[in-house]
């Protein structure tokens, strides 16, 4: 008996469009267009594992991971433009299936992590350190950390991409002492604020590491969390702060 395709609810349509940030994951085409002041869809909710697989598709995908046993569960849908949906389905390949599955898995992982943002607070005094980095930073005041003191190489694993590792390494060597001085100044105004901030970063890192094994993803989520919790602060500056806590041992411990 064949499965019947169900109609997605307006709420589910909004979720799927938001997940891919209004861009087709295959071709990056916008998924909505405006005409006469109204918005119109250019996309379809595509089944990642086929709704009614043929015998050859069942054989092709028999050893592949599935995100839900129910093919009509929203976890098995992703927003694609009409053209890419047709190409994905005809003919279906294991390579494209794995790629689309990995995109959806990453989306679901981020959603699970973002749901925790509200549960983990950060002292708002840290905004003063971020502001110093963005608005008042003086490069002449930098004192570089000696490379032999760098802890990143001991802690990083294969899940951290080379380019991100290089960025973290550069941020630690360039900014570690500067950030440390700013936290010391913060402590002089708000006693023990650094200890509170460090424990909060550590707590959220520990929470992330229980559900996410990739250091690449964890670093990005910590950076985004810090930005969101401090009023959408500059992502670059927040990344430098998280790199500081990599060296200071609250992250990647």
UniProtKB/TrEMBL annotation:
Its EC number is 3.1.-.-. It comes from Aciduricibacillus chroicocephali. This is HNH endonuclease signature motif containing protein. GO terms for molecular function: endonuclease activity; hydrolase activity. Residues 42-91 form the HNH nuclease domain. Residues 115-252 form the ABC-three component systems C-terminal domain. Keywords: Endonuclease, Hydrolase, Nuclease.
């Amino acid at each position: 008996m064949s499965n019947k395709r169900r109609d997605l609810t307006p709420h589910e349509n909004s979720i799927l469009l938001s997940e891919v940030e209004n861009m087709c994951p295959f071709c990056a085409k916008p998924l909505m267009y405006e005409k006469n002041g109204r918005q119109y869809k250019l996309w379809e909710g595509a089944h990642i594992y086929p709704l009614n697989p043929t015998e050859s598709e069942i054989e092709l995908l028999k050893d592949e991971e599935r995100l839900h046993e129910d093919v009509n569960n929203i976890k098995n849908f992703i927003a694609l433009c009409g053209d890419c949906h047709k190409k994905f389905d005809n003919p279906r390949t294991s390579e494209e299936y794995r790629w689309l599955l990995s995109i959806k898995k990453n989306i679901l992982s981020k959603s699970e992590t973002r749901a925790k943002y509200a549960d983990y607070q950060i002292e708002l005094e840290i905004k003063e350190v971020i502001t110093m980095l963005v608005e008042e930073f003086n490069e002449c005041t930098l004192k570089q950390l000696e490379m032999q003191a760098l802890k990143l190489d001991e802690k990083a694993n294969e899940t951290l991409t080379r380019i991100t590792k290089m960025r973290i390494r550069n941020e630690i060597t360039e900014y570690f002492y500067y950030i440390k001085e700013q936290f010391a100044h913060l402590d002089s105004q708000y006693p023990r604020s650094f200890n509170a901030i460090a424990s909060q970063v550590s707590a959220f890192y520990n929470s992330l590491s229980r559900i996410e094994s990739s250091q690449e993803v964890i670093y990005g989520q910590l950076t985004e969390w810090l930005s969101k919790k401090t009023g959408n602060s500059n992502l670059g500056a927040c990344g430098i702060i998280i790199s500081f806590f990599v060296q200071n041992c609250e992250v990647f411990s």
